[in-house]
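Weekly structure sync, notes
Attendees: PL (lead), two postdocs, one rotation student
Agenda item 3: pending single-chain targets
PL asked that the sequence for the first pending target be pasted directly into the notes so everyone works from the same version. It is reproduced below exactly as submitted, 115 residues in total.
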Amino acid sequence: MNGLQTYRLTIDPPVGATPVDEPHSAASISCASPCSESALVLIRANDDIEHAEVTVHNIAGRRVATILSAPVPAGTTPVRWDTTKGGASSLPSGVYFVRMRAGEDTAHAMFVLVR
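Predicted structure, written out during the meeting:
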């Protein structure tokens, strides 16, 4: 290996779904849905992540917010996106996607914004 630490990112299954057995997962991302005034994103990591970027995208794939750009410690890290600040209040109800990048790895989760 080149000395760089890599992370395998997975998305938690939706509530009521049958989880996929992935025992080697190093991190996961999930969102509480539906949401209205704030979206709660949970990042679960087995090891420290040197730098993670968590962004929100609309159904067309356009980035509408960056909600985290920082190191993430091992364990569970809650990240809250206040949808009423930073121009997000003009976002319509609909389906949005959260993307987490850590190095070359990415994970996606989906939530529904209800106004």
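Discussion points:
- The mean pLDDT is 75.
- The two ends are 48 Å apart (CA to CA).
Action: rotation student to compare against the earlier draft before next sync.
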